[in-house]
Each structure stands twice: as C-alpha cells, then as structure tokens.
Write a structure and sequence with these properties.
With about 200 residues, this protein is an alpha+beta fold. The chain is about 60% helix and about 10% strand.
Length: about 200
C-alpha cells in the first residue's frame, strides 16, 4: 500500500493512503514506518493495519484532551475528528460511540450548561436557540432544555437587564431617538419588537 505524508507541524504529519485522509501521527512514530523519512512510502497490509491502530490510539487521546478542556457537543467532536485530526471516516463513529458510552460526550448535559451560561449572560431565547443549533444539538433536546430553563419570568428579567444596558449605551440621545435605537438594537439581538416597545412605554 502506498502512503503519503504531509507535514502539519514541526512534530506531526497528516497521513494519506490512496489520497484518502487517515489521520495525524507524530513524526517520531512515522519514523518506524518510513525508514528514509520520505513523504511517500510503501507499506505491507500488516504494516498499514498497525499504522491505522496507531492513528486511532493517538486520535482517541487527542479527543480526550479536547473534551477535557471544556464540555463539547457531539457535533463539535465530529468536526474536530474530521477537520482537525483528518481522521479516516470509518474510524470516527467508533471513537464517538466510545466517548458517548463513557459519558464523555452528552448533548443534553452540554445543552443545559450552555443554556445556563447564556442565560447568565442575559441572552435572548432566540440567540440561545441559534447557539444550540449551531452546536448541532438535536431539535428535541433544544425544545426540552428551553422549556425547563427559559420561562416567562426569566425572559422578562433578561429583557429588563438588556433594556437598562441599552439605555446606558444610548444615553447621549434624546428620549425619542434613544428609544428608537434601543428598539432596533434589541430586536437585532433576538428580542420581540412589541415586548421591547411595551417595556419602554412602561
């Protein structure tokens, strides 16, 4: 089997087999497969199998490091394996299933934590929903989390906080101009126009 390597960093290289991405390996491991350190080399089927096992082992450790940094969604991990580690497509489900079964990846837990963080930062419901969709969270999970975490009282408190911040932001304008700017500003941030207008009139 003919393999090709592409230098990625000073210490690692991307490995391709027949123009298909297999993954990333440290150069010190690749040294055992490519004795002359060439960018293209031949491997027996047995050597190729062993190299693939090394790639899977290294990728698993890299995935664990990625998960240890902060909570991640399944969608983020899929992107990490494919776009950052260039991992062979057939290997990705195996590592992801292993991480999910070990509870290292849990989209419900991830969605709850992200929603709570965004609520603390006074984000609108629409912004939170879009953030969760952006992390490729399942629609049913998003609906359940928002029902639990984002009630009418929370929405009202967040709107009031944002209006007070916006009043400071546009305090140099006359009341009429200020209110118009607040309406436009908060509408762009996902708040309902008429709810903002009612609050300002109150």
């Amino acid at each position: 089997m003919k393999l090709k390597t592409i230098k990625r960093t000073k210490t690692t290289s991307i490995v391709l087999a027949d123009e298909e991405f297999w993954g990333i390996l440290p150069n010190k491991i690749l040294h055992f497969y490519s004795k002359n350190q060439s960018e293209t080399f031949e491997l027996t089927d047995g050597e190729a199998d062993k190299l693939l096992k090394d790639i899977k082992r290294i990728s698993w450790n890299k995935l664990l490091d990625y998960l240890a940094y902060r909570e991640r969604s399944l969608g983020e991990c899929k992107t990490f394996l494919s776009q950052k580690l260039f991992l062979k497509k057939e290997l990705q489900p195996e590592l992801l299933d292993k991480a999910v079964s070990s509870n290292f990846i849990n989209d419900t837990r991830f969605a709850e934590m992200l929603t709570e963080e965004l609520i603390r930062n006074s984000k609108s419901k629409i912004v939170i929903k879009n953030k969760l969709y952006g992390k490729k969270i399942d629609k049913e999970i998003i609906t359940d989390i928002l029902q639990k975490k984002f009630n009418s009282q929370t929405a009202n408190e967040i709107l009031e906080i944002n209006i007070e911040k916006a009043k400071i932001r546009f305090s140099r304008f006359s009341e009429k101009v200020r209110n118009e700017k607040i309406l436009n500003y908060l509408t762009r941030k996902g708040f309902a126009y008429w709810k903002v207008k009612d609050k300002l009139e109150d």
